[in-house]
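Researcher: Structure for this, please.
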Amino acid sequence: MTSTATASTAAPGAARIPKFNPKLFPATGSAGAIAKPLWEMELDIISTWAKANKAMLPRKPDPVKADTKDPAAEKDRYENEHAEYTKEHAAATKLIDNLLAAVKSAADEKTTDTYNILDDAFARGSDVRHTPGSIVSRLMFGGVCNAITGKEGGIVDVITCMPLVTIADAALGKKKKDASTAAEPTFSTAADLTMSQLLKYTRRFHTAIHSRVELDMISTTPTRIVQMLCPELSTTEVNGIRKRIYDTVVLGFGTNSSAAAAALEGGDHVPVAARTGVHDSEKVCALHVAVCILNCWAEQMDSSARSR
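Model: Predicted structure, token format:
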């Protein structure tokens, strides 16, 4: 409300000077360990994030309405939905535990991807070690499916996500010509879910993971730019430089140090940099768009942090 009132009372045609937003580069760990990018998380932090992610868990049933015309039917509706929610929540928790176990196995130097979740894009070798966060953030659809199933060797091809022939034949226990009439197999390691149900959970988990990666890519872009261009600077130093540029260029608070040095010399022949007056609209023109983009970036970071 304050900003709207200020804009409405400003003179017509007056230039709007953007404000400095120091929250563009937040302090590391200011919002807790879960605020780290997904690819930097360890296994315990991934567990905390996944089990608190609403996209991976079923939605809670609506509470019993007091003003309903049929209280008995409303109570039955809530009990049925709550029982279904409890069942789905237990299944989702089991699948998350399977995912964590598969990621731990893939990240362990002594094991060789027991659950078949790593695709060909992952580097292999005795001296190569992948962190849990880097594995989760790069999993393909088939890798997520094998991870949440919790079956050694996996149930689908990591790249094509086609069911493995040996697994399908063993689960169905019938010939290929009778496979269409057989009941869909369930997997005891995955809360007795069927293949179609596992694919629905896989799609949900895969979407949640990649949504988190996209948000982390946006929020860490300023920091990554600083690390590429001037890795020797800390976050505090970068904010100090941004503040000085904002004060001197946008607000025009120059120090006039060259004129002060000339006065100490006591001569008129010493060349000095003149402090020229610049109109407010010209000051804002060069950096107005850039500072506004940075402010919008910071606001987007705040909103994404609240959504986590």
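Researcher: Any notable elements?
Model: Strands lie at 186-187, 193-194. Residues 19-33+221-267+274-308 form one domain.
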